Amino acid sequence: MKQAIFALLVSGTYAFPWVAEQPGVDSSLFEARRAHKRQQTGEGAGGPATCPFNANHVAASPVTSKYPYNNAKNGLPGNGKGGFQVPATGDTAHAFVAPGPNDIRGPCPGLNAAANHKFLAHDGITTFNELVDAQQNIYNVGYDLALVLAVLGLTTADGDPVTEKLSIGCDATTRTSVNPALTGSEPGLDGHNKFESDASLTRNDFFTHNGDDFSFNGTLFGMMDKTCGSNFDVSGLSLYRKQRWHQSQVENPNFYFGPLALLLYGAASFLYELMPSGTHGYAPDLATISSFFGAEKQSDGTWGFVHEKIPPNWTNRVSPYSGTDVNQQIKLGPEYKNLGCPTALTK
Ligand code: HEM
Known about the structure:
Protein name: Heme haloperoxidase family profile domain-containing protein
Cofactor: heme b
Bound molecules: protoporphyrin IX containing FE
Structural class: mainly alpha
Number of domains: 1
Shape: globular
CATH topology: Chloroperoxidase
InterPro entries: Chloroperoxidase, Chloroperoxidase-like_sf
Strand content: under 5%
Pfam family, one: Peroxidase_2
Family: Belongs to the chloroperoxidase family.
Largest sheet: 2 strands, antiparallel
């Protein structure tokens, strides 16, 4: 059954079929992508030569009857009922543990935090089932959206559909691939112009930073905080996305903003839809967002990095965040135009 889902989803526009008709999106790029994928060569900052290797791979800590969370297991639907604390009081199996030098982290703060709390394998080599379960158990992502994101991660960003393994960061082909000679390189989520794109919120563009499109950039976090006025809601993030789009256009001669870059607008919505805590009135405030991004303010006012952490006493959203919900956020009318859509900017 999973293979059938893969086949449907890799057809490109299935997950977000309306994307091809959006203003500013050249839908012929879907075909171009199939014919000639623009991707890293397996060299550079996210390449295999410098990718950490942890010989002691330990799978994610499972949910238990004592600490069931959404009871999502084995890639199947969970309860879909949020509003609970994560990690639960007393659940030491999901306490924060900083990644070591042999653990892989990547461009996604949501997944980095999940690995730091062992909802995903702590070494960063994860599986389809872990991805689907963790999204439901931590963030109360709806099962439909959890599936789409996990499949996009495994296929678009080049994990391995046979082993169903994915590196949440750099190229770990030797550990994800069923057979490297057959599959070629599997660059993981750092792989550029797959899921990872230019003009990210807090990550550099691939070509302007020697392939480092995954490390947290405190200057960008500070810019986002300033633009949003420490309130990371849709209007603040819309404006910031527009600024980033413009910045990349000016600074990056290789700036590429293909159809899949629209996923970035979905990721931006995670700040105000998935990260806010019931204990903070579900406000996308600085304390919450900085914790998920691993951002810590320094005495000189700049932002340093301390690893992504679920904030203390954090309770997740009550209703599941579905595929329909995220589509609505991406398509938002006037706000959408502010999100940095190329057409909007040239008007
Ligand atoms: C299987 C599920 C997921 C996959 C494969 C995935 C993958 C990615 C990738 C590749 C990026 C980089 C995009 C870019 O900026 O170029 C990203 C960014 C992001 N993801 Fe995820 N993600 C997943 C789930 C989540 C969840 C559940 C959250 C919620 C907390 C989340 C939050 C974010 C945020 C906020 C960003 C933007 C980071 C930035 O631009 O600085 N993601 N994700």
